[in-house]
Write a structure and sequence with these properties.
By secondary structure, the protein is mostly helical. The chain is built from nine helices and no strands.
Length: 199
């Protein structure tokens, strides 16, 4: 009787895909999209170059898959924090910032892709939509703060951008290994992000 290898094959395929995404995040956020070659991606992922094309149609498809994954993860963090409406907006934003800093320590390339995407011209419509979903989720938190009277008057897009820019500064330091997520400077940056948007 033949043994069904389909579940194992599926697991192996998913593991290869995960390695490719990790390689793409690292190389695209350091060397850059144009400078990264498929042999470089294959070497980083520990696979044969041809294996890339079993999972993705090409380098641009891999970029978009990695980008969408990171954006969806970040949007989920924001939605999770926003779901707890009993918490004050300040606490929700602190929770989001802490998760981003923790991820910066664990997977700095993912946070670089999230916060400093420099390859916009290679993104497809689905990737742009995933970025919009993350921004809109964060703007919803700001809108909640405005309605509570704690976030400054003005467009929520502005305050979400200001808050995220300061948190991105801290995430960069954590990702570079200069600070731990619990470092006093990181805590100061998160507080500064809140202070920048409060009325």
């Amino acid at each position: 009787m033949p043994i069904n290898d389909e579940p194992r094959t599926r697991r192996d395929a998913e593991a290869t895909r995960r390695r490719l995404i990790a390689a793409a995040l690292e190389l695209f956020t350091t060397a850059g999209f144009r400078a990264t070659t498929t042999p470089m991606l294959a070497e980083r992922a520990g696979i044969a170059e041809g294996t890339i094309y079993r999972h993705f149609t090409g380098k641009d498809a891999l970029l978009n898959a990695a980008y969408r994954e990171v954006q969806a993860w970040a949007a989920g963090i924001v939605r999770d924090a926003e779901a707890d409406r009993l918490l004050p907006v300040r606490d929700r934003l602190l929770a989001i910032a802490r998760r981003l800093l923790e991820e910066s320590a664990r997977a700095p390339a993912a946070i670089r892709m999230l916060l400093h995407a420099r390859e916009d011209r290679y993104l497809d419509d689905r990737s742009r939509e995933s970025a919009r979903a993350f921004r809109e989720a964060l703007q919803q938190v700001m809108a909640s703060g405005k309605s509570d009277g704690v976030v400054r008057a003005g467009p929520v897009e502005l305050w979400a951008g200001v808050w995220l820019a300061i948190v991105a500064f801290a995430a960069e330091r954590v990702g570079a290994g200069e600070w731990a997520p619990e470092h006093p400077q990181a805590a100061l940056a998160i507080e500064a992000a809140w202070d920048a948007i409060t009325s």
